[in-house]
Amino acid sequence: MNGMNGGQTKCFREKFRLRRAAGMCWLLDIEQPGIPYERPVALNRTGAFICEMMENGAGAAEIAEAMSEAYGITVPEARDDLEQFVRQLDICDFLPE
To answer: Which of 14, 22, 31, 52 has the fewest CB atoms within 10 Å, i.e. the most exposed one?
Structure first.
């Protein structure tokens, strides 16, 4: 899959944390200096699922397989959804180079 490799997953785990509060899932940049303050990003259930797997060190193939099982979709559909999510992370500068 394009867009995400093992090194990026490791850097993601070191820089971001997934937190649940007020009935929502939030992605927090734990390395930010505080000024300017970077607001946490709200995630939907699928985004939280993906980020949680990334935090646990899963790679793209493992995440796509888990998404397929969890959401009753094919692995290619899961891979497409994952690629779209990773592109969005990259656009928002949430995916280390």
So the answer is: 22
CA distance 78 to 64: 5
Strand partners, 19: 26
Show Cβ contacts of residue 71 under 8 Å, excluding neighbours closer than 6 positions. 46, 78
Long-range CB pairs of 48-53, under 8 A, 24+ apart, other chains included:
48/18, 48/20, 50/82, 50/85, 51/12, 51/16, 51/18, 51/25, 51/27, 52/18
Q: How far apart are CA 39 and CA 6, in angstroms?
A: 26
This prediction has a pTM of 0.79
